[in-house]
């Protein structure tokens, strides 16, 4: 899997046919396909609901991950509790796998917070909007993991890896490349997971690179792997191997999950200005969720599949309801909060500004204007 | 104002074949604010370049293009994303004329949508003007009307100095006719947009209409406030402000950027130095606070608004 | 002062195993100014990390280390080379506490040798403090003596806020005993380093000894100037300055950085606002000019020196 | 030459033995060995004199290129007049080849200027001290060349290439990698010439990369070539081929010239703090100038070699004398110059500052202090 990247590696094809491949972990290490399917469906529902909430004016913006659930659940399901994730702003399904309450994902987009959850609770860091910036944080965290001695001990409860997400566009930022350089020379326990969803807003991948994203790693001297990002089984296998290599002291990997952003960049974007509906439809036919459902329900379908799907349908509805209610109940910050959280102790000049501001807010504006 | 800027870019592209636009998503998409809408179609991919995702690359390659005789106009997608380009702007672009002892000009324009008030998420509501104003060798412009946007952009592109061109994004949707033939005010001059004698109220960009509203309220109360639109944040036309303060004796300065180290402090320092004996009250500032820009649910009260301006004017007038 | 800083780093490395130094050439070489001399040998390559050549990487990885529970101390080799790290500093480091609603601290210190006067080439004599002081969420410190360098560095490293720690490079070679047991002044407090009643002269870093010389000259002429060492450039301890100006009625501020948008303008604006009726003369500034830092053959006359300070004090006293 | 980089390619060994290799251009395209030797010797003399001038206090600092003349003259001799060079601060021999007056190189280090020459005169841009920054300028310039239509016309008087120099340390700066990305996707006529002199001040190459510098290019999808930087013939051949590919529209190349900085980083550096004299001596034995002299004077020596060397010796002395005199005669800037050159027209507030400053300078300082 670490040879020169060419065609994305795949085992589950769009018709739901699974090819046998010994790189797919089996036995206790195997991906639980039912769980993976459930994760994809439920996280997709988070995405769908969030779009609806945006339409209703409850969110300012939402970056949809529709179509990328295979890559994200593949990676997310390969995480162990002590692994640490540095996401971009689109890893809703990874957040789901890590156990972050999806309601907490909404605050940033509702404008009630710039964060939303405690990164330490689930080792899932805050969303980062500045393209590429989080890759260096992942590198630094991995330096900490090395210094803590939590690499290569062979103790599965001790060894840790850092999983940094990035988009195809992020490959062009200088900082991302610095992260690659640092990770390589220090042989850090970090996996760079690039979802090449073909687009950086309106820029097709060809604007960023003329070779596959995974190839970038070779220039820095570490393995790059190209995988079908819409094949959750392959993604899990690749992420699992890369994370395991990282944990055991084998150094960094760049994974390129070849996928597609089926929706516009965000709810504010108009993707038909730069791509055609026909291409969108092509990719819809390769959808990762449909693909796994086809496998699970293929032939006569395994026993219990109908019950499973019915239960999942109910779970979805409950989740959707919880999201809608949770979104509306998200606490609006207090006008004094930014002052409180700028520095550890509020300096006197900032206290003066806060007092003025709070008096102004309390005073009821709009007297004369 | 977005339309005025589009027209301004179009006019420059037509006028000078050396004008080249570079930026993320400025081609087919026309930029996230559609300021470059239609330009790629009319002027080709070579002149309207959808760039890779790297701000250092945008500015650094613009510098090289300028060295090769072009007049690049960069677009940084949002205020908060200019920082990866700071090295190229500060250590390269701003210094090159000086390094080359005046031999080489780098006529690069960097357009940046700035400011808050549109309910955006983090990094999309920043006001980074002071970083640039503190960097010698750059011009920093910020229009407040469509006509000014058109005029200043043309002047910026034709000018041989590097120009940071700040576009108040709240004003993108403001209407306003543009007369391409209208005589333009010099690009480094402030402009008195409402005359008055009771107090001088100075601001720029999206706060100019807010200041005008405050002035209208005060006028109803019988106090004529002079409103000055700074337009150029570097160099700062303190002559115009000082002249006004000599008449009014009072000065209030407003901007969205954080207070400490902002343009307001600089202007206050200059005015108290040059018009010390004319000041009847301390120079007051109404600005963003010294905190990160908050989550958007707080921004309505957060941004300097008419009421905060009125409060400051009242305070000044009470002295 | 370099020795004091070395001792300060050593003390912190000994005190807290989570302290890690990162920077270009800080290992075997001990840094280009030898501030980290001997530390790699005594604390290992893991704790004194000679980094690849990338400032974004230095600060970005320090952020990640801090998230993992470490207290990284970065060294930027020269003032002019901090700009590639501006994105990490401004959009990431400074904002993280706010973004995480106070949950997460990033105790990162960024040490930067600053200022001119050592006959260096381009990019080696810059005074970038205003960029940082204008960025909420950072602390900016600048010591002027060896003792203060030792004390402030220790406070900076122990502090949970990100700190930009500016080391006036002209002072590296200045001698000065350090008493590690001496009670340290609070890190956000300015300090009156010479009392007086005729005028307040405020500065920081390498200009503090210059200001003291000017005060000594004026003392011979019978005028007692109060010299205030700002120490913290963000937050600025304007209380101490205002208190002084209330007594002296006059204020001169000096710094090497360019005038426009510098710390001096900010302080002038604050003082005229808070001590308007106490000021008997306008606040005057003696600063670097609004040009790029010149070729070193010009720097002797260029930098604020005793004579320029005296000239400004005279002008203030004449009012 | 564009295969995966491994051992640096070499034709002239340290004993001065030349291996026949058909990649070395012959006939009219061949490197003029006498001229190359002369360029190396004279530019080395510039370097030596500059160090002496620094010792005498005439220069503040000097970054010696001792040991890198093979790489630099190899590259410099492959330039055509319309090609454009973006140097770092150490390309004294390239400047020499481009025809920049070496006296003009001294001003930056004497502190009389931040530039020193008009980049347009010789298409040799100003030295850049900020590591990596110039690589993006080269990219932008190359974009201009493309837009001018000066690529791939087949007209040798029209087609142009851009030659950007960088050090091994520069590989780790984000901006350098952005330059690689831009050059690749736009297939720009730019050659990145990396002198891997093994050190970035005190950091050995292993701090920057665990694979050869030339390998970096593969990650961006363009050729990387590894060449013996102390073999001027091989360097010329490689640079010539890369520049020709660029001019003809074949896109970018990264050349890694494996060489050694025989002196400390600059005259302010103390290299024995981080490397041993023994290693320095090893590399001295592979010196590029000695190597070519051995070839030229090998066996009985070609006819005229003694006269040539004697003439060159005289030329060296004249050059040294000219440098010493020229250095001392470099004009000190006027105190008003920085104000004059900050913007095209001096703003009024800057005029006020200038007037104050000039009055201060004219007033004769030091009255009281
Ligand atoms: C430094 C920076 N520059 C520009 C932007 C604006 N921007 C937001 S998302 C985006 C495209 C990102 O594309 P990619 O990395 O492929 O991620 P995707 O959105 O496809 O998940 C851009 C340009 C940004 N967020 N940060
Ligand atoms: C952005 C930046 N950071 C740090 C420095 C300080 N510095 C000057 S030279 C140098 C080492 C450069 O090494 P390399 O790129 O290998 O070039 P060489 O000096 O070996 O020619 C460093 C770190 C700088 N000039 N620019
Ligand atoms: Mg993408
Ligand atoms: Mg080197």
UniProtKB/TrEMBL annotation, chains A, D:
<dbReference type="GO" id="GO:0003863">
    <property type="term" value="F:branched-chain 2-oxo acid dehydrogenase activity"/>
</dbReference>
<comment type="function">
    <text>The branched-chain alpha-keto dehydrogenase complex catalyzes the overall conversion of alpha-keto acids to acyl-CoA and CO(2). It contains multiple copies of three enzymatic components: branched-chain alpha-keto acid decarboxylase (E1), lipoamide acyltransferase (E2) and lipoamide dehydrogenase (E3).</text>
</comment>
<comment type="similarity">
    <text>Belongs to the BCKDHA family.</text>
</comment>
<keyword id="KW-0560">Oxidoreductase</keyword>
<dbReference type="GO" id="GO:0009083">
    <property type="term" value="P:branched-chain amino acid catabolic process"/>
</dbReference>
<feature type="domain" description="Dehydrogenase E1 component">
    <location>
        <begin position="38"/>
        <end position="297"/>
    </location>
</feature>
<dbReference type="GO" id="GO:0000287">
    <property type="term" value="F:magnesium ion binding"/>
</dbReference>
<dbReference type="InterPro" id="IPR001017">
    <property type="entry name" value="DH_E1"/>
</dbReference>
<dbReference type="Pfam" id="PF00676">
    <property type="entry name" value="E1_dh"/>
</dbReference>
<dbReference type="InterPro" id="IPR029061">
    <property type="entry name" value="THDP-binding"/>
</dbReference>
<keyword id="KW-0786">Thiamine pyrophosphate</keyword>
<protein>
    <recommendedName>
        <fullName>2-oxoisovalerate dehydrogenase subunit alpha</fullName>
        <ecNumber>1.2.4.4</ecNumber>
    </recommendedName>
</protein>
<dbReference type="InterPro" id="IPR050771">
    <property type="entry name" value="Alpha-ketoacid_DH_E1_comp"/>
</dbReference>
């Amino acid at each position: 899997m670490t040879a020169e990247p060419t065609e994305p590696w795949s085992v589950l094809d769009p018709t739901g046919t699974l090819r046998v491949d010994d790189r797919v972990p089996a036995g206790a290490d195997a991906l639980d396909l039912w769980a993976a399917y459930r994760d994809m469906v439920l996280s997709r529902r988070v995405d769908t609901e969030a779009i609806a909430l945006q339409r209703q004016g409850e969110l300012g913006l939402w970056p949809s991950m529709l179509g990328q659930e295979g890559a994200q659940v593949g990676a997310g399901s390969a995480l162990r509790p002590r692994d640490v994730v540095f996401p971009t702003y689109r890893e809703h399904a990874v957040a789901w796998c890590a156990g972050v309450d999806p309601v907490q994902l909404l605050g940033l987009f509702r404008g009630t917070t710039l964060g939303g959850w405690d990164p330490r609770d689930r080792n899932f860091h805050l969303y980062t909007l500045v393209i590429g910036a989080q890759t260096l944080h992942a590198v630094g965290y991995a330096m900490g993991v090395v210094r803590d001695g939590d690499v290569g001990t062979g103790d599965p409860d001790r060894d840790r890896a850092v999983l940094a997400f990035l988009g195809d566009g992020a490959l062009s930022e200088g900082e991302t490349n610095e992260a690659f350089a640092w990770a390589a020379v220090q042989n850090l326990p970090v996996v760079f997971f690039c979802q090449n969803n073909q687009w950086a807003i309106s820029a097709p991948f060809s604007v960023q690179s003329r070779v596959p994203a995974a190839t970038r790693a070779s220039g820095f001297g570490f393995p790059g792997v190209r995988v079908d990002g819409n094949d959750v089984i392959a993604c899990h296998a690749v992420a699992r191997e890369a994370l395991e290599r990282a944990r055991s002291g084998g150094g960094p990997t760049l994974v390129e999950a070849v996928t597609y952003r089926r929706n516009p960049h965000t709810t504010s974007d108009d993707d038909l200005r730069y791509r055609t509906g026909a291409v969108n439809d092509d990719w819809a036919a390769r959808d990762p969720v449909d693909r796994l459902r086809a496998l699970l329900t293929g032939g006569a379908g395994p026993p219990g599949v109908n019950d499973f799907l019915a239960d999942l349908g109910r779970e979805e509805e409950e989740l959707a309801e919880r999201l809608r209610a949770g979104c509306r109940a998200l606490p609006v910050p207090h006008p004094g909060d930014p002052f409180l959280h700028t520095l550890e102790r509020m300096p006197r000049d900032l206290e003066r500004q806060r007092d003025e501001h709070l008096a102004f807010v309390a005073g009821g504006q709009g007297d004369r204007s | 104002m977005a339309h005025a800027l589009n027209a301004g870019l179009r006019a420059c592209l037509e006028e000078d074949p050396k004008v080249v636009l570079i930026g993320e998503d400025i081609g087919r998409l026309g930029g996230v604010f559609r300021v470059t809408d239609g330009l790629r179609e009319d002027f080709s991919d070579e002149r309207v370049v959808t760039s890779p995702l790297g701000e250092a690359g945008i500015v650094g390659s613009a510098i090289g293009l300028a060295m090769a005789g072009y007049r690049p106009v960069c677009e940084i997608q949002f205020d908060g994303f200019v920082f990866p380009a700071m090295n190229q702007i500060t250590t390269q672009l701003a210094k090159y004329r000086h390094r080359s002892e005046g031999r080489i000009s780098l006529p690069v324009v960097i357009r940046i949508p700035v400011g808050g008030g549109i309910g955006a998420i983090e990094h999309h509501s920043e006001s980074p003007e002071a970083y640039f104003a503190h960097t010698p060798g750059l011009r920093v412009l910020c229009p407040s009307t469509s006509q000014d946007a058109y005029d200043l952009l043309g002047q910026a592109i034709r000018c041989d100095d590097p120009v940071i061109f700040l576009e108040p994004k709240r004003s993108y949707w403001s209407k306003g006719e543009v007369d391409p033939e209208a005589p333009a005010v010099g690009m480094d001059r402030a402009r008195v947009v409402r005359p008055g004698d009771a107090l001088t109220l100075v601001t720029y960009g999206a706060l100019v209409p807010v200041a005008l509203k405050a002035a209208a309220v005060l006028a109803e109360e019988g106090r004529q406030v002079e409103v000055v639109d700074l337009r150029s944040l570097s160099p700062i036309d303190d002559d115009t402000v000082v002249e006004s303060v000599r008449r009014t004796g009072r000065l209030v300065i407003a901007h969205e950027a954080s207070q400490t180290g902002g343009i307001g402090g600089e202007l206050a320092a200059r005015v108290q130095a040059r018009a010390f004996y004319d000041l009847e009250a301390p120079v007051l500032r109404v600005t963003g606070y010294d905190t990160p820009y908050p989550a958007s649910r707080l921004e309505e009260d957060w941004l300097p608004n008419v009421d905060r301006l009125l409060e400051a004017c009242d305070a000044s007038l009470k002295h």
